[in-house]
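Notes from the pairing session

We agreed to fold both candidates in a single pass and log them together. This is the raw record for the first candidate, unedited. Please don't reformat it; downstream parsing expects exactly this layout.

Candidate A
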Amino acid sequence: MRPVRLLIVIAFATVLAGCGADGEPVQPTFSGGVGVGSSGVHGYGGVGLNKGPLNVWLGF
């Protein structure tokens, strides 16, 4: 399976599992900001899902 297709399948499965159909709702988390330093200006952020003891976070 091609890597892009595998990532799409994993993302679809995560969204489907996170819809809350099995009871407890998923709590999305969003974060972001802008940093200024001696090397210039840069942006950062991330998204996450929390459900019970499971936490998934993707930073960029």
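Candidate B (folded immediately after A)
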Amino acid sequence: MAEKKEEQIDFIWEGIDKQRNKTKGEISAKSETIARTDLRRMGVRVIKIKPKPKPLFGAKVQKITPADIAVFARQLATMLEAGVPLVQSFDIIGKGHENASMSEMLLSIKTDIEGGDTLAQALRKKNLYFDDLFCNLVEAGEQAGVLETLLDKIATYKEKTESLKKKIKKAMTYPIAVLVVAFIVTAILLIFVVPVFEDLFQSFGADLPSFTKFVIGLSEWAQQWWWAVLGVIGVTIYVFGYFKKRSRPFNQFLDRTLLRLPVVGMILHKSAIARFARTLSTMSAAGVPLVEALESVAGATGNIIYHDAVMKMREDVSTGQQLQFSMSQVNLFPHMVIQMVAIGEESGSIDAMLDKVADFYEEEVDNLVDNLSSLMEPIIMAILGILVGGLIVAMYLPIFKLGAAVG
């Protein structure tokens, strides 16, 4: 794998030129040492040099997202299929891109290609954005002389993958939204609304219902310890993020737990199978050997349980086992998927079979997400209604009791 290309840094400098005149300016280099060397070659004796400060209220640097890469793959495939030369395609796409960071990267790749690199070599220098799967398929396309065909498959794969990711994110957002909205509404009522009623009740001097006393006690606790609650939430989020990034056992426990959840677990199961099928189909169509393809497929499943299962399948396949038999041993793939793979292996059309599997499960995920959305809307309203309604009833019970006594 090629080393990651270092980014250029802008420096501002002051120095003395060959005529012993004071001068200053800006220069871009990979490091301060290289900048000083370049200036010395230009005949400048550097007095002061430092990185150029970023503007406080300047334009925000746009990130390069997977969606940008998917759009680029489709644009490049379309350009090459239309007969536009590779370098010119990069020039057109790069200069016309709305994302300045993406534009800069594409023009940098164009420069590398003009310098003699193949497209795969140039992309590997940007391995932060182009993974092994992308680069390997491009390399296969270049070697076989079918680059535009392979780019079309990559573009389709990226578009399907990004669409699936958006659906999963949408499915996971709803339960979190319920909890956040419920927490915020309850906190506002307990901290700001209940104390107003508490002052009113104290003026009555009457004995309050037990439910009302409980809510007032909860309100007093929330007013006194709200900072502790926020602190616990903050620490919990930090600890979760820390172990999510660094602990493999924690990720295994988390993914296994998510897969067991009702509805959400089914969505994650089906999405992992869809990603498995779509990635393996794309790599098989490109002629990538099965053992090599399965390593990339494992990373594309998006779930560590499926990742470990696919890596186990890779070990089995490398010893001569059929893929269908290995899939049946890991107990994660439905019978229908295993049978489709078996038919593909026997007929020599495993890429076509897996493509059909991916289409089926992507549609299943789409339907499940829509169903979850429809289900969550009334649940959100019910939870908020119970919380808000319960607090309102607790506050008005003493008033109703007082009214009955007066009557």
